[in-house]
Amino acid sequence: MHILRPSADRRLNLLTGLLSLIGAGVLAASLLSHSPEDPAWNTAAEALRPHNWIGYPGALFSDVALSLAGFASWLIPIMVCLSGLRRMRSKSVEAPGLRIFGAGLLVLSACTLLSLAPDWKPLHETMPPGGVVGLALSAYLLANLNFGGTLAIVAVAVLISIYLTTSFTVETVEGWIAVPMAWWDTRVEGYQNWQDRRLARSEQNRLIKEAKRQSSSLPDPPPPEKKPRKVPVDPPAEETTSTFIPIVPLEEAAAFVPQLQVPTPAPSAAAPPWEVPRRKTRKSDSFFQLPPTALLSEPPARSQYDEQELHETAARIKVKFEEFNVTGSVVQINPGPVVTTFEFKPEAGIKVSRITQLSEDLCLGLQAESVLIERIPGKSTVGIEVPNRKREIISLRQILESDEFRDSPSKLTISLGKDISGRIKVASLESMPHVLIAGSTGSGKSVMLNTLIMSVLYKSTPEEVRMIMVDPKRVELGVYEGIPHLLTPVITDPKKATYALRNAVLEMERRLKLLAAQGVRNIDQYNKKIRDIIAKPRDLFADPHEIAELDELRPLPFILLIIDELADLMMLERAGVEESITRLAQMARAVGMHLVLATQRPSVDVITGLIKANFPTRISFRVATRVDSRTILDDMGAQHLLGKGDMLYRPPGTSRLTRVHGAYVSEEETAAVVENWKAQARPDYDQSFLMAPPNEETDDDDADNSAALTGEQDPRYQDAVRAVCELGKASTSVLQRRLRLGYGRAARILDMMFRDGIIGPPDGSRPREV
After folding, report:
1. Of the candidates 267, 592, 651, which has an alpha carbon nearest to the alpha carbon of residue 410?
2. Domains along the chain?
């Protein structure tokens, strides 16, 4: 295809464009000041001064143009003006012959269209609106076709000429239609929401009136025979949505009366479905629309608490503590969705450590699966968390419809679940900024990953968040294959996972350079600045190279890297995986790249010191031993969890653990949301993330046979130095295991370290000193 390219000299292009604009203005002035009395082609007059602003040439042009093409002659200066503007911007013209043909066809079809009304003569009596050419073409078409057929042919010719002359496409029409349709959908949905809220309020008022009418007809309850003793209770520290109901004590527990604190959820915590409007995406989000919560199952009804059973449990706790000479009383009971917290106030002289050591004995006395004992901050009581006989299933839909999730501004808001008091807990990956998840088989780790991914799918579009999923087990994350949020297909090969992590490091470095070039500190500032640059109108005389560079700028999406089983990768590709994860965890927060690592084996050879130091946010489900709990949380307690979503959550910036009961999402719900996203768009994979980086090391056996390298030339030299400094000893076997090197290459690297003074001389069969 022939392309009419502008001159390499920008000044010449600018001059040519200015001349074209001046010519277009002269032609427009000639047509605008046309007078039938001027001497011209169709008028024979005396040699008088013409009325046309351009003089005799203008009078001649306007007379010829209006006589031949009528009002369609105005297209000539318009097309000359557009051509001049394109020339000034130094833009190429693709297929100039087709564009010239399209311009001619546009003038002819416009002439014919204007001449379909022969009685309309706005110029003067002898000049038709479409000129002589339009009159002849319309007369020919009307003689062979009827008026409808002629109009259809002329309309098709106009559309074809516009398509050939301009850059007009079908997508342009879709963009024009999408804006008013989105506005109309918003108005219709707002009206429907208003109607739903109105019906809900009327139904609620009816139920309240009916309940009042029924309660007024019931007889008053008889007064209690025995008046309970009053026990002083410390005021709750931060309980603003709770109702306190005193429990009448049993005879065997008449010595003390704990207060039952029944949490009442805030009105915003469980908003009805009609008060949860679907968020429309911005214009920049194209045609993506977030899925509705109706795809998820309805939240189950909340089970009621047996006050008598709770009181009996409180009495048994007191009796069990007295068996070990720990005196005190239960002063408050806080029922929760999964566990009930009994606040035990010890008497003076009782150490907290004595109470916490009795957790196993308390399990035996209460016949409970596990009991967690911890001090309650801000109170003089100890919380004893006892499992409920009937656990509440926390639905993901209930979390997504809450105000906490809906009002969160972060695109990476994730649903955690509910705390022990029943309050909804959500968090933002932007503030974490990376999270480490551990838990044994069946503890709820995989459901937590699904909940995290589903939260992002309900909060962000593919233009806002992209994901890289690594699933060595091949069965957990495969359901998300094909969603448009994926940056790569779900990775199951450990080697490709290593490539993806190393390429993610390169992407992080590229983004850091982009942020530095724009003079901003984080991705939010960068995206805001880029949107302002895109929205700013272009200067007519700006440098075309600068304009091209500005046109290439786009807001950066967040990138979420999810690794389902870290232990498998660490066993196969330890060196590359650990180094990439460490670099990403240290530097990727500013550029919007966040890591989510999950493992069911929280041992020190999987969760190394380098990884733990850069992951301040950690979540632990039930683990086998207290050693595993200390490895993941730096504290004990995870071994006493109940499983099935029961977790200990350590937020960033604090060492205080929070017990949270995770939300549940089924496979059917996940599949429904995935199909909703698949129906909107196909994934746009970046296959370069699965390829070896440019500086990827060759096979180790081939490297062993290569020539001797110096420390500066060997790319694994710095990794070897780091490994021996971490272990405090150096030997060829250590380097072979840690870096997967051949014996010859490991020995050469040791010689380089000895030459550089990092390690000492050989000492027989013992490792060298560092």
Report:
1. 592
2. 3-168 (no CATH), 240-269+301-392 (3.30.980.40), 413-516+555-690 (3.40.50.300), 700-769 (1.10.10.10)
